[in-house]
Amino acid sequence: MRHFLKFYFLLVLFAVPSLRSSAQVDTVIYTSGRYILGPCHDTLLLRGVNYAIYNWGYSINQNKLAEIAQSGANAVRLVWYATGGGPEYSNFTALDSALSKCVQHKLIAILELHDQTCANSTASLTALTTWWTQTPVLTILNKYKHSIIINYANEALYVNWDNNPNAALTSYKNTYQTIIQTLRNAPGFHFPIMIDAPDCGQHSDAFINSNTANDLIAADPDHNIIFSAHAYWFGYAANDSAQMAAKINAVIAANIPFVIGELANFQDDQVACQYTLNYIPLLNYCQTVGMHWLIWSWDNDNCAARQITTNGNFNSLTGFGQVIVNDPNFGLATHAPAKSFYLLNNGCTTLGIEADQQLTDFVFPNPNTGMLFFNSASEQVVFLWGVDGKEVGRFVVTRGASMIDLQELPTGVYFLKTDLASFKIIRL
User: For residue 281, is the peptide bond before it cis, meaning its omega torsion is within 30 degrees of 0?
Assistant: First the structure.
């Protein structure tokens, strides 16, 4: 018996899912088409802030993750350094503590290296693989693998800013292909890798031009790459809301996982906070289309007006912070993003996805070409959801053997929820 609402079809992801082992899917955040999913297969909408933990490395006691959690954020992008920065960045115990605090406060940690910010050295960028794959770091990352995203380097390399943009884009792609392969060769390095756009992170079109994003995904044996641009778009998008929306529409149409990794109210140039950014229409549009964003920054910025708080405490929100947290259209408190199911439940066993092999005892075949068979111990209603979190169908499954027809659904990944658990379904 089938009960489809036809208009839901337009909301389903039109993409063939990347093929990944169940072991990886069950232990790390991963991607499917343009969506980012948790290890329990819940669709994640990353909404949060950037934070230079330990006050840019100079104060081991300055840890405001508990304060950030009060904002309603579900993710935090953490500034770190491989070399340089303050003295705390050479302290791996401090790194472990920061990631532990993220988990404790139900925050997905996006760990980034700031060393190559706005630099244009492919050799120096590639050399950062040594930091990411050294044993102490890799041990810590694997400890929190269920709730971490690796943002390899902040805002590195030039493309449009280069004298030969076409050659520079090829170099950008080749460099990151080498980086991806090196990282994946390290033991247990299955975390999602976030790659920043070139030209100080602004050039989101670089991911679309010359098939760059898809080539980088193809270079990854895990197919687990996330792309990020930073919306300091005073010049790049003429500070115009229509052009900003067009940039976002372009990456959505490309069906790639994309995050606005930094979004702010002011942009620096010759002096701090030189340009006022048209950020509210951008956030409104992000809310409309379900785009991920991370605000720069929580505290300790060189531009005080660009801080969300005056001193790092949630009770010290600035005017900018009040907008980010309380705006009725997109605020972190008024439109709180869902927390990671894994973090909320300390795993996936409470109501989450059971192991793939358990699925075959109840529903088969999976993957399927449109006909799905059930072997149920009782009559129940089952629900089918797209990876975008929208319900696309519900069915009555009778006791014993029964069948449902999914042939009208586009190919892609879906999630089937029963009385006891949820399962990933692949429609070929």
Answer: no
Q: Which of 183, 172, 179, 174 is nearest to 120 (CA)?
A: 172
CA distance 421 to 10: 26
Rounded distance between C-alpha atoms, residue 166 and residue 54, angstroms: 40
At residue 349, the pLDDT reads 58
Paired residues of 75 in beta bridges: 48, 108
Q: For strand 108-113 and strand 30-32, is the pairing parallel, antiparallel, or unpaired?
A: unpaired
For 214-254, list the strands marked E by DSSP.
Answer: 225-230
Which of 250, 224, 259 is CA-nearest to residue 17?
Answer: 224
Q: Look-up: residue for tokens 């006691």?
A: 61
User: Pairing mode, if any, of strands 292-295 and 258-263?
Assistant: parallel
The structural domains of the chain, ordered by start, are 2-11+349-427 (2.60.40.10), 46-336 (3.20.20.80)
Which one-letter DSSP state was computed for residue 336? Answer: P
What b/e string do you get for 239-255 counting C-beta neighbours within 10 Å, with b at 16 or more? bebeebbebbeebeebb
Residues in the chain: 428
Cβ-in-10-Å burial (0-12, 13-18, 19+) of 2 comes to: exposed
Does residue 20 have a pLDDT over 60? no
Q: How far apart are CA 246 and CA 234, in angstroms?
A: 15
Tokens of 20: 């990944």
**DSSP letters spanning 105-163:** TT-EEEEEE-TTTT---HHHHHHTHHHHHSHHHHHHHHHTGGGEEEE--SS---STTSS
Query: Given this model, what pLDDT does residue 24 score?
Result: 38
Classify strands 391-397 and 380-386 as parallel, antiparallel or unpaired.
antiparallel
What is the arithmetic mean of pLDDT over 7-30? 43
- Report the predicted TM-score, pTM, of the whole model to 2 decimal places: 0.80
Query: How many CA atoms within 13 Å lie on the side-chain side of 389?
Result: 12
Rounded to whole angstroms, how far apart are CA atoms 410 and 428? 8
The two three-digit tokens of residue 288, written as one number: 């409309």
Rounded to whole angstroms, the Cα distance separating 142 from 145 reads: 5
